[in-house]
């Protein structure tokens, strides 16, 4: 199918996760040059929703006022990253720090920024990790979740929960997935995150199960089901292949939707899908190279019926793809 283009090629990204450094006596955020440790300050990024850039500057100015500096990898004190996510003018902020305790006075002044309605802190003192967050987050002030509406449903997000960065295109992509599903008895979604697509599929089946490895995401997913009064969906925290094996032994799975990370489906998950003999497989991919690798194996058992690419991240080489496959007879 033709590419579903992004109708808003700038200011579409609803989240930023940026490293923090000291420059001219104050904290600034930016990016690293590719394949280097050379820090480049960024005051405005054209793909960021405008409020992200304006508000991260406000937050960093307040942190500078209270004498916070960039993280020191010997003492592990200081600010390491700033994370902001927002929808419709309301934002959630997370400070990724060393061992610092953010003072009550600083938190109180940060809380005076009206647009930011939720604050968290995450301690990350692992020098070698590529992860932004540490092992968890601590609530600092204001609301505990950030609310967003999509596809006629409401969702509450915690800082570490995955949610699509381009909500307009994500809604179109999810609608495409739902449109591919015929009325069914039992649907499973692997890598479900906070349950957005799982809940949107609920009218298509008697029962729907979402699986994800991240406990916080599954907790949010359950809350989102209750928030939207959807009773035919449940969520499981666990390994996708293990849980799929267990579910397929208990009853016939009519449709399996997979939305894996950029690394794609691992060998065990591909083998589990093939062994389960699920009639309809819908693969939502964010990486064409790992999609191609997985499809090479799946095509021995499944027929590719339709491929639809989506442009979610304009001005980048990234593309999302929805692939509908049916089990060969």
What order do the helices and strands come in, and which of them pair?
Elements: E1 15-23, E2 26-32, E3 39-41, H1 50-65, E4 79-87, E5 90-97, H2 104-110, E6 116-123, E7 138-142, E8 146-150, E9 153-157, H3 167-179, E10 184-190, H4 196-200, E11 205-212, H5 215-227, E12 233-237, H6 240-250, E13 255-258, H7 267-276, E14 280-285, H8 288-298, E15 302-310, E16 320-327
Descriptive account of the structure:
The protein has helices spanning 50-65, 104-110, 167-179, 196-200, 215-227, 240-250, 267-276, 288-298, and strands spanning 15-23, 26-32, 39-41, 79-87, 90-97, 116-123, 138-142, 146-150, 153-157, 184-190, 205-212, 233-237, 255-258, 280-285, 302-310, 320-327. The protein has 329 residues and is α/β, with parallel strands linked by helices. The chain has a seven-stranded mixed sheet. Helix 6 (240-250) runs parallel beside helix 7. The protein is elongated, with a radius of gyration of 21 Å. It starts with 14 loop residues before the first strand and ends with a strand. The model has no long low-confidence stretch (mean pLDDT 96).
């Amino acid at each position: 199918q033709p590419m579903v283009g992004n109708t808003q090629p700038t200011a579409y990204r609803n989240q930023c996760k940026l490293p923090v450094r000291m420059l001219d006596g104050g904290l600034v955020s930016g990016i690293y040059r590719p394949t280097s440790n050379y820090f480049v300050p960024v005051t405005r990024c054209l793909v960021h929703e405008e409020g992200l850039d304006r508000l991260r500057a406000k937050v960093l100015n307040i942190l500078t006022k209270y004498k916070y500096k960039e993280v020191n990898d010997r003492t592990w004190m200081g600010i390491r990253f700033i994370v902001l996510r927002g929808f419709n003018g309301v934002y959630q902020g997370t400070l990724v720090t060393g061992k610092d305790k953010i003072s009550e006075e600083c938190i109180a002044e940060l809380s005076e920024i009206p647009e930011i309605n939720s604050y968290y802190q995450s301690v990350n003192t692992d020098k070698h990790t590529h992860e932004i967050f540490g092992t968890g987050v601590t609530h600092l002030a204001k609301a505990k979740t950030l609310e967003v509406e999509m596809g006629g449903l409401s969702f509450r997000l915690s800082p570490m929960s995955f949610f699509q960065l381009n909500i307009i295109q994500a809604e179109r992509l999810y609608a495409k997935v739902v449109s591919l599903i015929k009325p069914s008895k039992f649907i499973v979604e692997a890598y479900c995150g906070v349950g957005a697509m799982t809940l949107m599929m609920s009218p298509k089946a008697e029962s729907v199960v979402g699986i994800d490895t991240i406990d916080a995401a599954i907790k949010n997913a359950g809350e989102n089901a209750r928030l939207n009064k959807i009773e035919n969906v449940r969520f499981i925290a666990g390994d996708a292949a293990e849980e799929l094996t267990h579910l397929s032994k208990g009853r016939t799975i009519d449709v399996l939707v997979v939305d894996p990370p950029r690394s794609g489906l691992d060998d065990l998950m591909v083998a589990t899908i093939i062994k389960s003999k699920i009639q309809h497989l819908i693969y939502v991919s964010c990486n064409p190279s790992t999609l191609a690798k997985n499809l090479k194996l799946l095509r021995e058992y499944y027929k590719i019926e339709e491929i639809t690419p989506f442009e979610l991240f304009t001005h980048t080489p990234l593309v999302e793809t929805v692939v509908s496959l049916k089990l060969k007879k």
